[in-house]
What does this fold into?
Amino acid sequence: MADKSKMTRFSSEQGNTIFNILSRHYIIIAPVEKPGKGRFSDTSQVLYEQVDSFDEIEFFKKTHLSAKSVLLPLRQTMFSFRDNKPEEIDDEIRPMIIFLRSCDIHAIKVLDAHFLNGGGYTDFYYSRLRQKVKLFLIECEKPFENCFCVSFQTNKTDDWAAFMRKVKDGYEVHVRDEELKAYFPRNAENVAGPRFVEQDSCPIKIPQDIDASIFEDDIWKEYTLRCIACGRCTVVCPTCSCFSVQDILPEDKSAGERKRLWASCMVKKFSILAGNHDFRIKEGDRLRYRMLHKIYDFRKRQGFNMCVGCGRCDDVCPEYISMFKCVEKINHIIEAHSING
Amino acid sequence: MDNIYLPKLVKVLDVRKHTQIEWSFLLDYKVEEESGRFVMVSLPYAGEIPVSISGFDSHGIELTIRNVGQVTSRFFKLNTEDILYVRGPYGNSFPLEKFQDEHLLIIAGGSALAAVKPVIERYINGHSSMLRRLDVLAGFKSPKHILFREDIKRWKNSRISDKCIDIEITVDSDEDYAWMGSIGFVVNFIKNVKDIGEDTRAIVIGPPLMMKNSVRELLAYKVKEENIWLSFERHMKCGVGKCGHCRIRDKYVCIDGPIFNYTEAKELID
It folds into this structure.
């Protein structure tokens, strides 16, 4: 919890001045509402974008997409083939600020564990971007629909450079990062630090132990009938980070590039081998593969859950498949097994 | 910071053609001899794939590749002096210390023999005192699919001093009736392995079904679970545990494998 005395309040107008100076040194990425861009008519889309003022930021709505594309661009050039020699492209990367809720900050912890340290290898491209990013915490007044951050213990975080809250006519901010302190007024005011959600609207129990019996269960057959393998759940997930690699040769046959791009284990042929031997051909098996990674297999490796409970997968699924319901079903199966021995 | 994804340009020193679609490329790429590991190999605009190292010598490494996909078909246009893009090696290696003074049975199906060839070569070439007995059971689709014919002849001709080597080559079918050897799946020949039992150490490598059936047979002959090792083949884009394609449960085949002890492998359900 932030110390009350360290909070600062400033008006919208002051905010513009602060933003102008801050944005000379930082690219500021935050939730933005796009009216009319939603999935249904007359709805809006809330997503992450570079903003031009604090007032543009949508502080109160859940974003449909996560901010992972900042650290893992949808398409990312790895290197070019100039004269057929692999050559790193020396992109100048500007420092960035991302406005995130607690669950999404936890999602970055998941990506850090995987890309910075996982298996003893550091991912060059992720690390290069990550070093330049500072995290601004924004709070949730109450849980959104389909959110279960408390169940996943991602409702609270202490990992932020600054915390910012929108209030009537202005903003309240608590800056911890030494470099950022210079941009904000110093006068201390007696206002509340970040408030975190303390209770999920629908709490779920996270299964502790999963044995092979779950693989045989019929629930996955049901998901085979429902899942259409569109991969939306992996696109919106803040911790889904699988990628494929492609070489691109421009039409003029000049220096092409090796790029990586998002991949999805929910889409068919994710694991296919040359010669057409494939794994997890059924949609239900792919759903089981992804689900168990989120709530069990990642934890076995890293010590904490991969799923942060943001519920975006539930929000986006065109077949109304719910992660929440699936975890509940897994719990029932485990209980039934423990009763039947 | 090192960029693990940047490949090195490596010269092809020699191309050895076993069958029409299976060639070995000797590359000017020197690495420490650790059998079972793989490298990521690519050509610009073709793509990048994992390939097991099938041989180590003073010039470099040998890769045995089957012309079966988009990437490999491009490799088959290469000649000596041409360039391949290589990074690695990655993955774990066979636990040779566990085979010391023991009876080692290697069961390989088809081109998977390539990945285990360095282990066989090691014991044939002068490290004989390290094993009590070596059995190699390698199966191919048909006589024309047999790889490393010269190497196999050499292996058959050698004998580990006063101890034994047995090399059994089988084919699934022989349409031309020209094959003088055994016909049938490798799993059916496990029963002929001399002294197979509790103390046998076994490496099983090949197509998934062949591995599954072979392990079942080994267990029936009382080979202990902890004495069986399998080598997995999976789709990979990075080789360093990042891209996610080769993950099975909490393991990445590229960094935790490709070799898994059966006690671990039996939990790995795709």
